[in-house]
Design brief:
The complex is a heterodimer of chains A (191) and B (173).
Chain A lengths: L8 H5 L7 E8 L7 E8 L5 E9 L3 E8 L18 H18 L4 E5 L12 H13 L5 E6 L4 E6 L7 H12 L13
Parallel strand pairs in A: 4-5
Antiparallel strand pairs in A: 1-2, 2-3, 3-4, 5-7, 6-7
Chain B lengths: L9 H61 L7 H25 L12 H22 L2 H4 L15 H6 L10
Helix pairs in contact in B: 1-3, 2-3
The chains are: A alpha+beta (191), B mainly alpha (173).
Chain lengths: 191, 173
């Protein structure tokens, strides 16, 4: 018995088909945090290249960021919308990268922020709402504890199997230190 | 002085006799039908009714074994979880009927016919208990594993996630 099939076939493939991604490199940070930064890349249907930056922190916490490669040096690279209309497949690719990390290490936890659009307030951003909705639908509560924070437009996926004492307290403390609320990072895809 | 006998045509007598015979036949038919019904009921219907009760009893015995086995079933993978939840959702659909059957008072039923309703009531009651057991399997997912005094990251329970989910999607992990 599998999951029930939808009457709309598109829903069965939506968030299932991502883009093919490749790992570019990873680098140890001489002055952590983050401890390690992993770089991935993939091309969208329009041929534009995207960069995915996965930062590893203490307690196997990984923070995922992504942007268009052509905007990687721009300070607002995580805020501007691309308008390329490939959001669902990009998020699916990010999900596949997360799964790749999880398969390599079953104790990983993930986190992300939904950066605000230009002129948008930092709390409960449009990106955060979109990502939170996708993550809550696509990642089961079997291995991860879902902890969104609309106030900070942040979302934590804490690994249930990680037996680190006071993991949540340590992660939130770390999160608040590294990413002040005003700082934003995330994706520029919701169009 | 010589009163004439009232005229009685012969066919009136015959008609009366015929009517009596017909009435008797009708009565006999009705009685025979009742007897037949009772006979069929006590020779076939009632044993079947009792057998149904026995079948329910057997079902309950097997169910108890399943209940004990289900304690050791793991919910460690997403696939297992989805299967479990879909099954539980179907099971929950029958719960109102099962609760009604479990609340049945067999003492109100005549002693002769009590066996099967008692078995039905016991089976329903066991199923309701089983449903509670199954729901309790999800309790760990509905309570935060990692606690903290920090309030900014609100815990979302498994129940909330499942209720707000579009079930046409398949989990990534």
């Amino acid at each position: 018995m599998g999951e029930p099939k939808s009457c709309l076939p598109i829903l069965d493939v939506m968030f299932q088909e991502g883009f093919k991604f490749t790992k570019i490199n990873h680098s140890q940070n001489p002055s952590p945090p983050p401890i390690v930064t992993y770089n991935y890349a993939f091309r969208g249907k329009t041929g534009k290249r995207y960069l995915v930056i996965v930062e590893q922190y203490d307690f196997y916490v990984y923070i995922i960021k992504f942007c268009l490669q052509e905007r990687k040096v721009h300070p607002d690279r995580f805020n501007i919308l691309t308008g390329l209309n490939e959001c669902s497949r990009i998020l699916t690719t990010i999900g596949a990268i997360m799964k790749d990390f999880y398969n390599k290490n079953p104790y990983v936890s993930f986190g992300f922020l939904g950066s605000p659009l230009p002129g948008e307030k930092a709390n409960n951003t449009k990106r955060f709402r979109a990502y939170a909705r996708v993550v809550s639908q696509m990642i089961s509560p079997v291995d991860f504890e879902h902890r969104p924070s609309p106030k900070h437009s942040a979302y934590l996926l804490l690994n249930i199997h990680n037996s680190e004492p006071d993991l949540f307290a340590k992660v939130t403390q770390m999160f608040n230190q590294i990413y002040p609320i005003q700082e934003s990072f995330g994706v520029d895809q919701t169009s | 002085m010589y009163a004439t006998n009232p005229y009685k045509p012969y066919y009136l007598e015959t008609e009366r006799a015929l009517e009596s015979v017909m009435r008797a036949t009708r009565f006999l038919k009705r009685s025979l039908f009742t007897v037949l019904v009772r006979l069929v009921f006590f020779t076939i219907g009632f044993p079947l009714f009792l057998f149904f009760g026995y079948w329910l009893k057997r079902k309950r015995t097997r169910l108890v074994k399943t209940m004990l086995e289900s304690k050791s079933v793991n919910l460690n993978s997403t696939k297992d979880y989805v299967e479990f939840k879909n099954g539980l959702q179907r099971f929950d659909g029958y719960l109102p009927i099962l609760r009604k059957a479990a609340d049945l008072n067999p003492k109100k039923i005549p002693r002769l016919f009590r066996y099967t309703p008692v078995q039905l009531q016991k089976l329903s009651s066991t199923l309701v208990t089983f449903n509670t057991w199954l729901h309790s399997r999800l309790t760990p997912m509905n309570q935060p594993r990692h606690s903290s005094e920090a309030t900014e990251f609100k815990f979302v329970s498994e129940k909330e996630l499942w209720e707000n989910r579009n079930h046409a999607y398949q989990y990534w992990m």
